Amino acid sequence: MSEFGDLGNLDIQRLIRISEEHSAKVQEMQERSAELRGVAETKDRRIRVTCTIADGVTDIHIDPRAMRMPADKFAETLKELIHEANADVRNQLNDLMDETYGKDANPMALMQDQEAVQERLQAAAAVFDRTLDDAMADLERIAKQLGL
Known about the structure:
With 148 residues, the protein is mainly alpha-helical.
C-alpha cells in the first residue's frame, strides 16, 4: 500500500471513462425525456389530451360531438384527462430514469417515497452516531492510558 492508501492504486483513466459514460447516459436521458408525450383520452375517443414534461398540456383534441355533454361533466372529464396525461408522462419519465440510473438510484422514485428516504437518513445517522461513539470511547481510553 502506498503512502496514500488505496488511492495510490486508483485507475484514473478508468474513473474518467466511467464518468464520461455516465455523462453520456444522462445526456441521452435528457434528450429522450424532451420527446416524451403523455396521452389520455375518453373511452369514446372524443376528447384527447397530450402533455409533455417541459410544456404541460400541449394539445387538446375535442370532437364536436363531445360538446353535447353537460358543461360540468365536460369540465370534469377534461380535468381528469389532463391529470391522466400528466401521470402518463411522469410514468414514462420514471421508467426512463430507472433505465438510466437503476431502480435503486432513481431520483424520482426516491422523491416519491419520502418514508424510504427518511428511513435511509435515520439509518445513516445511526451509523454516524455509532462511529462517533466508538471514536469517543477510543479517545477516552487513550486519554486514560496517557493519564490525561
